Amino acid sequence: MVSRILRKLLLLMYAIIILLPLLMVAAATMKNQQQFYMNPLGLPSSFSLENYRNLFVDQPMIAYFSNSIIVSFTAVLLLLILASLISFGLYRLSNKFAKAILVLFVVGLMVPSQVNMIPIYSFLRDMGLTNSRTGLILVTISLFMPLSVFMISGFMKSLPREVFESASIDGAGEGRMYMQIAIPLAVPYLAATATFLFVSVWNDLLFPLLLITDKSKMTLPLALLQFQGEYSTNYPGLLTGVVIISLPMLFMFLFLQRFFISGITAGSLKG
Amino acid sequence: MGVRKTIYWFFVPGLLLYLTFFIYPTLKGLYYSFTDWDGMSETLNFVGLRNYVNVAENTIFHKALFNNLKFMFSVVIVQTLVSLVLALLLVRNTKVNIGLRALYFFPTILSSAAVGFIGTYLYDPNSGLLNAVLNQIGLSFLSNNWLGDPSIAIYSVAGIQAWAHIGQMIILFVAGLHGIPEELNEAPRLDGGNRWQIFRFVTWPLLAPAATLVIAYTTIQSFKAFDLIYVMTRGGPSYSTEILSTYIYSAAFQNYNFGHASAASIYFLAIIALVTFVQFKALRSDKLPN
């Protein structure tokens, strides 16, 4: 009995630790500055969406959103295509060449992005690809390639080899086997990989920070960092930015919870 | 058998990108570490091991390495203990438990920029939530300038890092717990074992692979931290939250000493490799990336 109450108490306490900061942030976005500083803990006197309106008026929020959407969707889509092609190739070959390629990707898994951020930055600058979404997308794809290959090829390994052997005897080429057998079977895994990659790319701060300086090209997390300078004394404004960049993730999480949890867990197992 | 040569084409587009934008720059970084390049000028001179010596003798680098360890140990300890306890409480797949797991997991999917600002707001000495709550419940003597006091700032950031990732570790522990056959918990209970004994002698040994995994992942993740520190403190006050990644970043992009920063990043890579190697040894082979 005592232990049951203790258990509930602990769970409740931790729920408060998670929820209270989030709710207070949400409440702060509905206060004006005076209300916020006079009464930081109190509820907003009225539910004013003034801060949200101001942010959309003062900032090119639509551009930030479309940049984030363009970069994330393009990078994730291309990653799924390129990494599944490579994974399928590794699965079909499983020879010395495949082993060498795998080693090349293991190296990539071991190198943290803080290590190659300097040469990547200067390489992109030399190519004239800084301050461009294309440059950011190309770098993002390359950085997440090792992890994507590991996640997808982990699944490919479990496919029965006989299926492909008989398809080959029936005259199917590699392209057809990939399109008509491997990819349809991989759909649930590709979906989990896609959510993991999407969250990582959408939330990435380091490479947008390095590569993008034009406001019109910024993604949401980088834009949020800019608000820090502009709204240094305006917490409600800053926290409104926090809520705005988090809302898309919140909605996706509510609808795709399973994929999120399994994808991120698989990503962390391999990473 | 029966693999057609066309399969080699499957590698071309992905490998081409990967070699161009990842492998080539990484090797170039190794090259920069032996030069005096400032990141801008046309010319650069080969200086041998001078950058490596300079980095190794730099007191701020030492401080950054030490802070990195402080940050890592505090995150690993807090994150592992809290997530283990919560996972044990949430192991059964009831509706409430599944809901709570999702709630606890939620901060994991927030951008670290957003988490960083939430942390900055929580810790603000005047209008922050933490001090306000402490004052409200009569513990005002505990209130503090959480990010402004050099002796605690690194732990404050570590707390936010743990807050954001505990839910993810709960999921890993719950998966580990679900892998333990029910009979193994039943038998000792019938023999009259108490909860602690069952945990100590049955659950814990069987949970070891999951625990190793959580600890390994958290170690690497917290060692590589950058975003939260960058957003919340930029390494300050007076270098008290400077860690290796922020050290490399400011050496390169604030002091324009690409050679020095590149040498520091090679040290960073070596340390990460060492940590990873030790952990791969400790991990069971079936938990390795395959």
From TrEMBL, chain A:
Domain ABC transmembrane type-1, first and last residues per copy: 65-256
Annotated transmembrane regions: 9-30, 62-88, 100-124, 136-156, 177-202, 235-256
Alphabetical list of SUPFAM superfamilies matching this protein: MetI-like
Localization, UniProt: Cell membrane
Membrane topology value: Multi-pass membrane protein
Database matches in CDD domains: TM_PBP2
UniProt KW keywords: Cell membrane, Membrane, Transmembrane, Transmembrane helix, Transport
Family per record: Belongs to the binding-protein-dependent transport system permease family.
Name recorded for this polypeptide: Carbohydrate ABC transporter permease
Species whose genome carries this gene: Paenibacillus polygoni
Automatic annotation (TrEMBL), chain B:
Membrane-crossing segments per the record: 7-27, 71-91, 103-123, 152-177, 198-220, 264-283
Main location: membrane
Start and end residues of each ABC transmembrane type-1 domain: 65-279
Topological type in the membrane: Multi-pass membrane protein
Domain of life, source organism: Bacteria
Keywords, comma-separated and alphabetical: Cell membrane, Membrane, Transmembrane, Transmembrane helix, Transport
Subcellular compartments: Cell membrane
Family listed: Belongs to the binding-protein-dependent transport system permease family.
Protein's recorded name: Sugar ABC transporter permease
Organism: Paenibacillus polygoni
